[in-house]
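Multidrug effflux MFS transporter structure dump, as promised
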Amino acid sequence: MTKKQYRTIILVLGALAAVGPFAIDMYLPGFPAIAKDLKTDIAHVGLSLTSYFIGIAVGQLIYGPLIDRFGRKKPLIIGLSIFVLASLGCALAPSVEWLIGLRLLLALGGCVGMVASRAMVRDLFPLKDIPNVFSTLMLVMGVAPIIAPTIGGYVTAHLGWQYIFVVLATIAAAVLFAVARLLPESRGADASISLKPRFILRDFSLVFRERTFLTYAVSGSLAAAGMFAYISGSPYVFMEHFGLTDTQYGIAFAMNAAGYILGSQVNRLLLRRSTSKQLTLKIGFIQFVAAIALVFGSVTGSLSALGTLALLFIFMFSLGIINPNASALAMSPFTKNAGSASAILGSLQMGTGALASALVSYLHNRTMVPMTGVMATLATLSLVFLLTARRSARKAVATQLYDV
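structure tokens r here:
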């Protein structure tokens, strides 16, 4: 493909993958206003974030077989249309219960972009280039968490939180137009893919039997879930605990999102000297250290707002390196069932994210500890899983050599 085609495809795929996260980040500064208008508290508003994560986790499992069976573009158009309608519904929500339900529907529509974008990268690019392509995608995707909270804070302050969802509907409509007009169909319909439950379960089981997929999908999902714990707990930590305004919170959130983007771009340089496997393990240890420092500072009360931001920046920078490498390694064994593999990978990421988000809300005790404690636990589990998998692989190699 030409450079112009490459840039266009990356831009549209990045926008597709960013639609779902944009709907997470943009309404976070509106939490206090939403709680006030719907006569509830921030913890209950946080459940609308949890329902969104659940919707993304479940929805990706639905879209995986669909994009393998019917091609990539038709499910994309349907899912984005659902997203537009659900966004407008959220703007009209009369209660927090309605908001929670509509956010679930919003996720079921928006997650199609996350599944299809990963599968289309696997369709369109050589295997050796995929980690770099994912890093480039993250540069495009990373604009969303930088500008989304800032836009959300501005819209909340000047128009009201309801207009956040009007803006989301407008953005999704623009992405829908780009998909229809600019994005090529990377894989057509395949009648050999059955949508009968037993065949879908068979395809999913084949994905899980790939040891490489299981290792990097699980470890990467655990690492990424720490970000969702941060997203869920950060409105309280920064706006209530440290007293930042909604605009200041948007800036703080953007700084940490910039760390994620920076990590994804540094990853492209690191890949010239190290393999994806080496980077995932080494940077996983750095993320673990940052998370432990966060929870220690939270328990002792020694962390200032600036210190918290610095450690969160390191955490997010590390994730920017871990995520593209873990995703590329997990997807590497698949061609025919790339959609199903992408769906399971995304479902694991969002499923663990939903659990992390719910746990932070459940443990809410007007301190930083629930957020930082969940982040530290997840970073530790991710590192332990990688170390255990590597040790098992070494033992397997040693056994084979001995048998020979």
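The radius of gyration is 20 Å.
lmk if u need the other ones
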